[in-house]
Amino acid sequence: MNSEFLAANRRRYSFLLTIVIIILMTLFCINAAYAENPAPDIKANGFDESITIATDDQLKISIGLDTGDYEGINADWWFLEYAPDGSIYYFDILTWDLNYIGTDFGMSAITPTYQGPLFRFDLFELITLSSRPEGSYEFVFAVDIEMDGLANDCIFDHNDDTTTVINMDTDDDCFDYSDESNENGATVINIDGYDRATDNINTFYDSVMVVISSDNSGFSDFKLPDTGQTESYTDIWGEDSDYTTNPLSYTDNVNGTVTDNNTGLMWQQEDDDTKRDWEDAISYCEDLSLAGYNDWRLPEREELRSIIHYGKYSPAINETYFPNTNSYIYWSSTTNVRYTSEAWGITFSNSRDHFHDKSSSYYVRCVRGEQYWLLDNLIISGDGTVTDNTTKLTWQQEEDNDRKNWKEAIEYCEGLSLAGYSDWRLPNIKELASIVNLDTYSPAIDERYFPNTNSFFYWTSTTPADATINAWNILFTYGYGDSHSRSNDDHVRCVRGGK
Question: What does the radius of gyration of the chain's CA atoms come to, in whole angstroms?
Answer without folding.
Answer: 31
